From TrEMBL:
Species this protein is from: Caenorhabditis tropicalis
Source taxon at top rank: Eukaryota
Protein name according to UniProt: FBA_2 domain-containing protein
Amino acid sequence: MYKHPSVHYEFYIRHRESFIDTEDYVKSYIRDINEKEVIFVQEPRNKLKTYWLEPREGLRDLSAYIVSAFNAKSLEKVTIDVKFMKRSFVEWVNNEFDGKINHMIVNIEFGSALNREYLFETCRKSKYLGFYCNHNLEFQYVSNFTTDDIFINKARPLKLDSLIALSQQSTSVTLFDCSAPTIFAELSSFLKYWMETGCRMKMKYLYALTEIPQKEFLPDMDYERVDPSVRRHFQVHDEYKAIFAGGLTVRRFDGAVVSICTTPISRVPKTIVEFYFWPDYNGSMGSL
């Protein structure tokens, strides 16, 4: 099999009934590995993706074979469907694969609680962690991981305790399509918690889809306006983009500041609100 030194690897775990149209790709390869059919498809710019249609058996061996065959030291993305996850695969990610994983995407919509808890160990290998789920993800019970960037899609409802836990575990937290009726109240409660406790957090950025203007988050707080020339670029999941300009700021008793800004987001007919926490006591916007 041809080895290209600049190939980026994306592992996708799909259901057995998945169909891949190989004609949509620059090149495609089909190999039988351990009596399993594995499809390799190559996109432009040397991006290689792998699919296997029966993930419940032999997943660890397939992963080890693919990484070895291409001498992969860095995996661009590993996508895991917890419904079909085997512990042996997570053990391979944690203990045997000695490279780095840039993005870890986890579909836990139908996964068991046991698998969900066990899977958090993989955070040690990835700076970006994305979750897709349709139920309450109780982060307050998970305290054994930290990461740079967490993306949560469809986590409903998301409680204040979970937001507090996330603020200690990730530099950036994105709540995408988590707009349950309680999300506004929980975000307001979190902001009040931050103001009153003087807590220090790992989290610097908090993004959430909402239709609520930024002023509504500050009913009893004095705020200042940020010059519209101050702009910040936002991108999530290689797909959704936005530019934040200006906004409102609130200064805490110890000098720490939170800026709040809302803006439309591309490809989504909603508004995203940005909470930007910056502990600059001199009143400057730092590196912005």
